[in-house]
């Protein structure tokens, strides 16, 4: 059962993101599966093991329009794929916090595009993000990657990290069960949006 694989943190590790100290990190569990039977999407659980965010595209795989919702089904972010030339496609995220949909003339909250850069291991793994006048880089966000991080271009500081989830004994769970660690004073919803886009880019969603 899926619920048996998504294990909440221990009581000593639990922190409610709404009341957590801004100097503390918050940990989510990302299951790269939809809650809808035969659907496409992903589910993000809070530290208590309850659903915090979800993406359900139902029977539509690799959609160019994706919605990130809260546990009650309210749309929080609308993601649109903008095709340019060749490999230069961009995912744009629109805030829907004040309504059910983004306004037609609304500027995107953030945009994400994949770049190709040869690393020491011969793999290309760079994703550029522009959000609210700030710029971020996501290193390692490729299909098959067990770890990647989101860093602030201004100072290189890590704002979020994603990796395979492991039990307290160190046993790795399935490849589609990840741990998302969000750094202090970081916009959680923005990071969730970036993780979903990474899943779309790597075709995991």
Automatic annotation (TrEMBL):
Species this protein is from: Lolium multiflorum (Italian ryegrass)
Family affiliation: Belongs to the LOR family.
Top-level lineage group: Eukaryota
Protein name from the UniProt record: Protein LURP-one-related 11
Classification via PANTHER family: PROTEIN LURP-ONE-RELATED 2 (PTHR31087:SF65), PTHR31087
């Amino acid at each position: 059962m899926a619920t048996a694989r998504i294990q909440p943190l221990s009581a000593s590790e639990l922190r409610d993101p709404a009341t957590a100290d801004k100097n503390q990190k918050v940990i989510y569990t990302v299951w790269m599966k939809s809650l809808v039977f035969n659907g496409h999407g992903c589910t993000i659980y809070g530290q208590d093991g309850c659903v915090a965010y979800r993406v359900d595209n139902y029977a539509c795989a690799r959609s160019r329009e994706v919605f990130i919702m809260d546990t009650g089904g309210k749309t929080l972010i609308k993601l649109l794929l903008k095709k340019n030339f060749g490999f230069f496609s961009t995912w744009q995220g629109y805030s829907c916090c004040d309504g059910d949909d983004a306004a037609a003339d609304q500027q995107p909250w953030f945009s994400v595009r994949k770049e190709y850069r040869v690393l020491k291991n011969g793999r290309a793994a760079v994703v550029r993000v522009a959000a609210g006048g700030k710029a971020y880089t996501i290193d390692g966000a490729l299909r098959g990657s067990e770890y990647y991080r989101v860093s602030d271009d201004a100072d290189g500081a890590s704002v979020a990290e994603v990796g395979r989830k492991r039990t307290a004994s160190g046993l790795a769970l399935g490849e589609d069960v990840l741990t998302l660690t969000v750094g202090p004073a970081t916009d959680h919803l923005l990071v969730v949006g970036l993780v979903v886009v990474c899943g779309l880019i790597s075709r995991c969603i």
